[in-house]
Amino acid sequence: MNHRFARRMNKIPRSFVREILKVTDDEDMISFAGGLPNPQSFPVEAIKDATSRVLTEDGEKVLQYSTTEGYRPLRELIAQRYKKQGLQVEVDDILITNGSQQCLDLVGKVFLDCDDGVVMERPTYLAAIQAFGLYEPQFHSVPLLDDGVDTEALEKILKEEEIKLFYSVTSFQNPTGITYSRDKRREVAEILTKHNTILVEDNPYGEIRFMGEDIPPIKSMIPDSILFGTFSKIVSPGMRMGWIVAPPEVMEKLVTAKQASDLHSNYFTQRVVYQYLQDNNVDNHIQNIRKLYKSQRDQMVQSIREYLPEGVKHTAPEGGMFLWVTLPEGMSSMDLFKLAIKEKVAFVPGETFYTENPETDTMRLNFSNCCEEEIIEGMKRLGTAIQKMEDL
Amino acid sequence: MNHRFARRMNKIPRSFVREILKVTDDEDMISFAGGLPNPQSFPVEAIKDATSRVLTEDGEKVLQYSTTEGYRPLRELIAQRYKKQGLQVEVDDILITNGSQQCLDLVGKVFLDCDDGVVMERPTYLAAIQAFGLYEPQFHSVPLLDDGVDTEALEKILKEEEIKLFYSVTSFQNPTGITYSRDKRREVAEILTKHNTILVEDNPYGEIRFMGEDIPPIKSMIPDSILFGTFSKIVSPGMRMGWIVAPPEVMEKLVTAKQASDLHSNYFTQRVVYQYLQDNNVDNHIQNIRKLYKSQRDQMVQSIREYLPEGVKHTAPEGGMFLWVTLPEGMSSMDLFKLAIKEKVAFVPGETFYTENPETDTMRLNFSNCCEEEIIEGMKRLGTAIQKMEDL
Questions:
Q1: In the listed set A220, A252, A279, which residue is the last one of a domain according to the structure?
Q2: Do A44 and B36 touch (CB under 8 A)?
Q3: What is the strand order of the sheet A348-349 is part of?
Q4: What is the nearest CA distance from B233 to chain A, expressed in angstroms?
Q5: For the stretch B213-232, what's the b/e string if a residue is b when 16 or more beta carbons lie within 10 angstroms of its beta carbon?
Q6: So what's the pLDDT on residue A14?
Q7: Whose CA is closest to A382, among A330, A347, A332, A334?
């Protein structure tokens, strides 16, 4: 049969990260390419206890269909955690999703008609390009500076174009590790409010701050904006438990879209995660993850300085799982990738993270899923590969 | 903020079933309105054992990110079960989804451009109207007869219109309980093949046959058609574990769409369901569900004959969870619903199950989630409500 697929399927870039993962199956490869949390950080025993408890105490119910919005006590607990951080979020403002990736799909569904204007950061989270891409918007992009988006460029584009959404990862961004400063957040809030553009703020790494001072999400300054959260980085990514925070008018549409998309998120796992959070001190657990990732991040920064040549620039993130490297002028990270693979070290070439006019001399490095010895060895190998590129 | 939502959000009907569930919260209400499996049928202890085992043996891995396609051994097991039924399905033909509702969303994403022609049964599964509706197709509908779709009407519409998909629940359909006969399946296969229309065959209840002889899905006669399956009716619906079977060319697009939609399905639960299926005889378990539902179905058929007036017609399904009632000529099931609620019995008025020109004298009754005493009492109450309608 000769299938006629929907037009939108031509608009979605194939995930280069996915392609890379095939290469990195090799046992000898040291991979900074993935985006995986360190499995050491998973609370396996506590999850086992929580699972046993919900099945013993409420077995038939936890295996039954449930509500689209999600398990109410879990939503209450999330709302309370926000309140502790100074954000006014109520239980009804929260919808449980299949990881924060589904937040992107639902926001695309609810807001985006073909050719609607969307502003992304430059570079931006690849999977957001893919998720929104299916709704065929017109992408624009605004550069990221060291302290967040270039607000002059943002304001210019909002003046010139009809822009519906601005998508931003405001803390420890994927792929760059960049965090918006307090001033930058205020500026962005003012600009978006003035131009009536919806903020879609993605905050998967917010709790993994291991240096510096916590800064509240921009949502605290734009109450009717949209915020994503997830348990992927603090409990388990395999459980696919995320959430959207949205004002009532938007929430009603999101719930309708979620219901049509998959009825509701895995109820069994919602109950397990809730039980885990009730029976354990998750803040202590998060503290341990921070310690672990800080030592890995420190090792990576140190090894870059030690083993990569002088022309290399890099971000020095205060949290999260990634840092961003800019190669010596004119060096293509895609060409380097091929040499690096031969040296048995992998990364993600930066050009996959752009919606338009990609920078070709950048790369993303993940530090959360390698031990310190691997980071040192991997950086030596990357240094060798860069040396070989320069000698070509 | 004055939100501008996407046009597609106006095309999705609000779920009346959802609205009904609010009314049926009342403890004294006997509800035939829901679509829930009987929680008695959930293998709670065996799931507890399986969960404990996967967390003990492979804890860090089962909590980590995983592949979009799903856990390969689980997909192999599903393929093997199809082979036992005489269907040539390979492991690579299977994508694990969040329940079969997500199959609908992914098929809509991959195939449907705005105004593409889709043929639905008349009546059809409400949530399929909602899921496809978000992709703004042009819906057409073809009546269901006692032995499946009206093939003359189907062929007529495929001749007259450009139709991309035909959506069909071929065994124990929701809402009617109707099953396509062997001959009807063959006819439908011929017509669809001739007109190059893709079959989307949904088979959530196929294993819950408690009378008559098993008939293979139409997919067995159209190898490159699309088939949905689910563990919701044989293991647990709350775990949201379904799957799509599709040929390679379509599978590639489905995987891309799934990745953009939520990266992958809950890996922890995939591992638990697989372990459950490995360590237990699920066929014995299914046999018990069949026995349970058969006695409930028999009681409902008997009670309809005993307590509802003569003009009432009904289907007598050989499996599944629903039967379909046609009221005496001219009686509105929506008006009856209001009276029935006062008598403390609920059902779903049939008109919610049509894409166009709804029949107003029909209703769906669920028999899987009430015990026999409740079925008897509920039917008495429904009889009283109909009597009152007739006396008005």
A1: A279
A2: no
A3: A313-314, A322-326, A362-366, A348-349
A4: 10
A5: eebbbbbbbbeebbbbbbbb
A6: 63
A7: A347
| The predicted structure's pLDDT at residue B264 | 96
Report the gap between the CA of A225 and the closest CA in chain B (Å).
9
Type of residue numbered B385: A
Contacts of B110 in chain A (CB under 8 A): 5-6, 9
Q: Do residues B251 and B364 share a domain?
A: no
Task: Say yes or no: B373 and B343 in one domain.
Answer: yes
Q: Which of A55, A66, A224 sits opposite B47 (nearest CB)?
A: A55
Give the minimum alpha-carbon distance from A62 to chain B in angstroms, rounded to a whole number: 7
Q: Kindly identify which residue of chain A lies nearest to residue B7, measuring between CA atoms.
A: A113
Q: How many beta carbons lie within 10 A of that of residue A113, not counting itself?
A: 16
What residue type is B231 in one-letter code?
Answer: F
Rounded distance between C-alpha atoms, residue A191 and residue A143, angstroms: 16
Mean pLDDT by 10 residues, chain A (392 residues): 86 69 80 94 97 97 96 98 95 98 98 97 96 96 98 98 98 98 98 97 97 96 97 97 97 96 97 98 97 98 96 97 95 96 95 94 97 97 96 86
What does the pLDDT look like over B320-347, one tens digit per residue? 999 999 999 889 999 999 999 999 999 9
Q: Looking at CA atoms only, how far is residue A273 from chain B in angstroms?
A: 12
Query: Above 0.90 for ipTM, yes or no?
Result: yes
The predicted pLDDT at position A20 comes to 74
Could you check whether the bond before residue B317 is cis, i.e. omega within 30 degrees of 0? no
Q: What is the pLDDT of residues A165-205, one digit of tens each?
A: 999 999 999 999 999 999 999 999 999 999 999 999 999 99
Higher pLDDT pick, A25 / B185: B185
Cβ B15–A259 below 8 Å, yes or no?
A: yes
Of the residues B279, B303, B322, the one at which a domain ends: B279
Radius of gyration of chain A (CA): 21
Q: Is A156 on the interface with B (CB under 8 A)?
A: no
Give the range among A148-162, B13-27, B150-164, B232-246 with minimum mean pLDDT. B13-27
Residues 6+ away with beta carbon under 8 Å from A63: A267, A268, B39, B42, B44, B47, B235, B236, B237, B238, B239
- Domain that residue A27 falls in: 7-42+284-391
Pick from B174, B250, B262 the residue to mutate for testing the A interface (most A CBs within 10 Å): B262
**Cis peptide, bond prior to residue A175, ω within 30 of zero:** yes
Is the CB of B98 less than 8 angstroms away from the CB of A266? yes
Nearest by Cα to B16 from B321, B354, B375, B304: B354
pLDDT at A138: 97
Record the tokens describing residue A311, joined without a space: 């022309």
CATH number at residue B256: 3.40.640.10
Are B219 and B290 within one domain?
Answer: no
Q: Do the Cβ atoms of A262 and B198 come within 8 Å?
A: no
Cα dihedral value B68, B69, B71, B76, nearest 10: 180
CA distance B254 to A287: 39
